[in-house]
Amino acid sequence: ALVTSTEMFKKAYEGGYAIGAFNVNNMEIVQGITEAAKEVNAPLILQVSAGARKYANHTYLMKLVEAAIIETNLPICLHLDHGDTFELCKSCIDGGFTSVMIDGSHHSFEENIELTKKVVEYAHPRGVVVEAELGRLAGIEDAVNVSDADAAYTNPAEVEEFVTKTGVDSLAIAIGTSHGAFKFKPGQKPQLRFDILEEVEKRLPKFPIVLHGASSVIPEFVEMINSNGGKMPDAIGIPEDMLRKAASMAVCKINIDSDLRLAMTGSIRKYFAENPSHFDPRQYLKPAREAIKGLVKNKIVNVLGCDGKA
Ligand code: G3H
Ligand code: 13P
Ligand code: ZN
Ligand code: NA
To answer: Does this complex have an ipTM over 0.95?
Structure first.
């Protein structure tokens, strides 16, 4: 069934695990993720960015997810990733999504509250849940020095007021993760501010926290890309043991997109390198879909811990 994340998060919080929120852009990605979840009986969040919606169109994505629900019989939450305006959130709520993110993290604290509150007031009477964000996820370029990084991390002193005033259902925080395949500089030791997560947990007991920018940038797929004509030196992500630790804490939703992209691109590059004369898209999309399936299964069982929880 198409569900909200409310029950998923409640059980995840109590059970000390996290739900995977995977970005979807086309049929093969939806199939790879949902077939993996089906095999290990995991609840799922499928998320659609503004860019995905522009690429594939709202109705196609909606129908692909509906098809996956029919095929797998899993509880799936369909979520808008990084909604930046009330209008975009409204459009997804009206169009059948069960969850939306309003990302007001680049606004002032007061404006973030105001915008988030407006989305919550539209979403809740319609049975839709809302994720918001406090603090800014640093791009690697942004965090050039400690004081810049400090300014971007979530300030735990703000979280209670934000959640109380907005009525939001979950909160994304910035503790050192970032989007994309280059999360730390070469030679830099990957680090997350678990002290901030602990402080947030203390101030918001039982409240579900979301981790964006949480791909591991799996070396196997980076290597597959680089050894088959690609050029992604120094691609580096969040170590799996840190994600496991976050999942055991208040983090109930872990966002993964880059790992899916790397798996898909690596397998397609490898396929073409080995089969230069092939041109039937089914031939190279099949291993790409299989790679996504394998990746997601491993993530669910070995990192998120939500296998068997559907
Ligand atoms: O957080 C960003 C996600 O990876 C989605 O990326 O906006 O390119 O679809 P996108
Ligand atoms: P990654 O780029 O680390 O996969 O993060 C994805 C994300 O946060 C989507 O909102
Ligand atoms: Zn994100
Ligand atoms: Na958790």
So the answer is: yes
